[in-house]
TrEMBL record:
CDD domains: G6S. The keyword Nuclease does not apply. This is Arylsulfatase. InterPro entries: Alkaline_phosphatase_core_sf (IPR017850), Arylsulfatase (IPR012083), Sulfatase_CS (IPR024607), Sulfatase_N (IPR000917). It comes from the Eukaryota. Keywords: Glycoprotein, Hydrolase, Signal. The conversion to 3-oxoalanine (also known as C-formylglycine, FGly), of a serine or cysteine residue in prokaryotes and of a cysteine residue in eukaryotes, is critical for catalytic activity. Coiled coil: none annotated. It catalyses: an aryl sulfate + H2O = a phenol + sulfate + H(+). It comes from Penicillium malachiteum.
Length: 597
């Protein structure tokens, strides 16, 4: 409104000047409006960032959120190939806020010693992440909702989270309790909201912070992080694990009362990988039993509960965007909507949960709207969570940081910058099962150990692949162009001779695997530009930018000499000694690549 007041003053002054000098009032007014628009467009943009918790893309949850579709899909761009790099909330969020892969943040779990808020602080990121950088660039920053796991009623002040002009954080152990949440505002003591639905609470807090941002004179960055559709966690129902950590019992999310009647006939999409007759995957996934009807029915109930819980988020987004539309700031504000990781229910016989490298867990919604962003557009470029901080930097006019492992995504048609066709997906530790039928792990636990893996997801001209190496040194290779539900592992038990081996991408599968493995070898320990342009590390001095180019047969000998991705043992965190070779060969007997090949 302050800009409009300024314009009104200018108009009044112009009117007086025009009348006094016989000028054309209409031309004067048009000049004033042009000056005001130019002034507005040169101001740094504002940001509204909404991040949900565990929201799927592959199970079609977005189709059940009409306000988000209206405000974000129809008025912005949908990035349909957007991936997380770690399918677990805390590591994924730290990667998002720092623009770095989890192997570079070394925050790889939801709780100590390998993750959670204490590890975030120990790694020095409380002074070195996106909101701090934005404040240094002149932004007012606000946050409400879930920030990190293990950010608790006991440690919230040691230290306080930096980087926000105003904050109101959910705190453990009450973070995921829909009807018994605890929030902690700025540097004030925690406040319990027992008896109130957490979405109702966060809506009031979010609208308050947005109002503060709109009334300020500086550009703003407002983040709203509701927990839906994450599972409900009763803080009083903690099941003690093996002595090293507590295992929390997770049940279906609890929707607001007014939404509990919705979607009564909706079921989990019955895709080809839903509770398949034949086992799929490798390692412990391949050993899962087919679900009986009771478990399938419960999965449908769990899915409906998630959709019902998302209705509160849908209404929250409607309130936020509507308030922006009523202000004079909408035309200079980017609105971003995404989630920290995906979710599976029944695919590959899995109970509710995340942590796997399958599409359901690593693909998440990403919608962006704002100045210059095409409306109703679908973007096919490969994008990841580590690209979001660089994207915000570019939109805000802040110089790119050399320690970013990602690169700005093509938000506007005028985008110019390096793109990548790959996603590095990595995980350490155990897979956690959720829901009433979750105790199917070893010894009846809700966890399955040895879920550590490194993988690469690749989408390029003529190929759509997922390649993974587990800490057990088992391999997975899926061609999603012919097997979109990842049911048929193409990785051979033994690589056969050229005469009889199967073909993949026009080459013998062994040659394709050699390239994929070498690419993963670079990406599993990459830093900075190496994560964006890994082929330059593999083939320095040559114009190789894609897997398709690297498949040229003249490079076969060189790739056959590369060390393979492997693990020395399974560990619960990022322990370099456990992870085998760390770098590819770029010379052979001192001879550089460009001569060697």
């Amino acid at each position: 409104m302050k800009l409009f007041t300024t314009i009104a003053s200018l108009v009044a002054a112009a009117e007086g000047a025009a009348l006094g000098h016989g000028m054309d009032l209409q031309n004067v007014l048009q000049s004033v409006i042009s000056i005001a628009q130019s002034h507005q467009s040169t101001k740094p943009p504002n940001f509204l960032f909404v991040i949900t918790d565990d929201q799927d893309l592959q199970l079609d949850s977005v189709s059940y959120t009409p306000h988000i579709l209206k405000h974000m899909r129809d008025k912005g761009t949908f990035f349909q190939n957007h991936f997380v790099t770690t399918a677990l909330c805390c590591p994924s969020r730290v990667s998002l806020w720092t623009g770095r892969q989890a192997h570079n943040t070394n925050v790889t779990d939801v709780s100590p010693p390998h993750g959670g808020y204490p590890k975030f602080v120990d790694r020095g990121f409380n002074d070195n992440f996106l909101p701090v950088w934005l404040q240094e660039a002149g932004y007012d920053t606000y946050y409400t909702g879930k920030m990190f796991n293990a950010h608790t009623v006991d440690n919230y002040y040691s230290p306080y989270i930096n980087g926000f002009n105003g904050s109101d954080f959910l705190l453990d152990p009450f973070t995921y309790s829909y009807l018994n949440s605890t929030y902690q505002r700025n540097h004030e003591p925690p406040v319990s909201y027992e008896g109130q639905h957490t979405i109702e609470v966060i809506t009031k807090k979010a609208m308050g912070f947005l109002e503060d941002a709109l009334e300020g004179d500086r550009p703003f960055f407002v983040t709203v992080a509701p927990i839906a559709p994450h599972s409900n966690v009763d803080p009083m129902a903690l099941n003690h694990g093996d002595g090293e950590r507590q295992v929390i019992s997770m049940s279906a999310p609890i929707p607001m009362e007014k939404h509990k009647h919705l979607f009564q006939d909706v079921k989990v999409p019955r895709t080809a990988n839903f509770n398949p007759d034949e086992p799929s995957g490798v390692s412990w996934v391949q050993g899962l039993e087919q679900q009986n009807q009771s478990v399938v029915d419960y999965g449908d109930f769990f899915y409906r509960s998630r959709l019902q819980a998302l209705q509160g988020v849908d209404e929250l987004v409607d309130s936020l965007v509507t308030r922006l539309e009523e202000s004079d700031k909408l035309d200079n504000t980017y609105i971003i909507y995404t989630s920290d990781n995906g979710f599976h229910i029944g695919q590959h016989r899995l109970p509710p949960g995340k942590t796997c490298g399958f599409e359901e867990d690593i693909r998440v919604p990403l919608f962006v709207r704002g100045p210059g962003v095409p409306e109703g557009h679908v973007q096919n470029a490969v994008t990841t969570h580590i690209d979001l901080a660089p994207t915000i930097f570019q939109l805000a006019g802040i110089p790119h940081r050399s320690d970013f492992d990602g690169t700005a995504i093509p938000v506007t048609p005028g985008f110019a910058g390096p793109r990548h066709e790959h996603v590095t997906v990595e995980f350490w530790g155990s897979s956690v099962f959720e829901g009433d039928y979750s105790q199917i792990g070893i010894g009846g636990s809700t966890m399955m150990p040895n879920n550590t893996y490194k993988s690469v997801r690749l989408l390029g001209p003529g190929y759509n692949l997922y390649y993974s190496v587990w800490c057990t040194n088992e391999h997975e290779l899926y061609d999603l162009s012919t097997d979109p539900y990842q049911l048929h592992n193409l990785y051979p038990s033994s690589l056969r001779s050229e005469e009889i081996e199967p073909q993949l991408l026009g080459r013998g599968i062994s040659h394709t695997i050699k390239r994929l493995d070498a690419l993963l070898l670079v990406l599993k320990s990459c830093k900075g530009s190496t994560c964006i342009k890994p082929w330059e590390t593999l083939q320095p001095g040559q114009s190789i930018h894609t897997l398709g180019e690297a498949l040229n047969e003249r490079y076969d000998l060189a790739y056959s000499q590369q060390p393979e991705v492997s693990f020395n043992w399974c560990d619960t965190g990022y322990i370099i000694e456990a992870e085998g070779a760390q770098a590819p060969l770029t010379t052979r007997y001192g001879v550089p690549w460009d001569i060697w090949v």
